[in-house]
Amino acid sequence: MNLENNPERASRLCTEAQARLMGRVAGLTDQEVRTPSRLPGWSIGHVLTHLARNADAHARRLAGAIRGEDVPKYASGADQRSGEIEDGAGRSAKEILADLDSSCSHLEQVFAACSAAGWPNGHFLGGGDYGAAGCPAHRLREVEMHHVDLGRGYTSANWPEEYVAWDLPVLLTTVPDRLGSGEERRRLMAWLAGRGPLDITPTLGEW
Fold first, then answer.
1. Nearest to residue 138, comparing CAs of 120, 154, 126?
2. CATH number, domain 3-173, options 3.40.50.300, 3.30.300.350, 1.20.120.450, 2.130.10.10
3. Can you give the residue ranges of every domain in the chain?
4. In this structure, how many other beta carbons lie within 10 angstroms of the beta carbon of residue 119?
5. Are the C-beta atoms of 33 and 44 separated by less than 8 Å?
6. Which of 20, 40, 18 lies closest to 153 in space, CA to CA?
């Protein structure tokens, strides 16, 4: 199932993913939110703050679509995104968790409003590369990926099958441009075609 084309189902999966996330991070201490995450240069506080602001960004796009307005995720682009994360990462654990809970709850309220309205204007791009109808699926990816990045016991083994069925093919399309060398591309291609073992560990560029 292409979840980008099924915002109703994607929003339900996203709501479940957000509940799993909130359950795992409940009770984090100030010391714990300062510890490094699995993302270079980011603490757990950075990851959780990013997840809160990302929820707000998707809520903005979807609420705009209901009003008939093509709204971007971040009005000031990447600078706004990075600034908000840095500004929020140093807060207390209580503040960070309350913020995340509020942002997730608000997004779920917007999901409900979109569902009641029939997910209008799903083609609006908001200056990005996917329509507003794809917001629930892309939010689902953010929650599932960054839940793993927290390094708190949630791993790829916990990813729901429906999420993997959608996102694995999407990620595979990015591989050719992210492989480090022609030799890596050839060996991976041979393995995919059943023409040899995967006897290397490919080096993938940032995604």
1. 126
2. 1.20.120.450
3. 3-173, 175-207
4. 20
5. yes
6. 20
Tell me how far apart the alpha carbons of residues 168 and 165 are, in angstroms, rounded to a whole number: 6
Residue 107 is predicted with a pLDDT of 98
pLDDT digits (tens, 9 = 90+) for 109-142: 999 999 999 999 999 999 899 999 999 999 999 9
Closest to 145 measured CA to CA, from 9, 60, 27, 42: 42
Please give the structure tokens belonging to residue 108: 């779920």
Report yes or no on whether pTM surpasses 0.85.
yes
How far apart CA 101 and CA 150 sit, in angstroms, is: 16
The token pair that represents 107 in the structure block:
């997004």
149 close to 39: Cβ distance less than 8 angstroms: yes
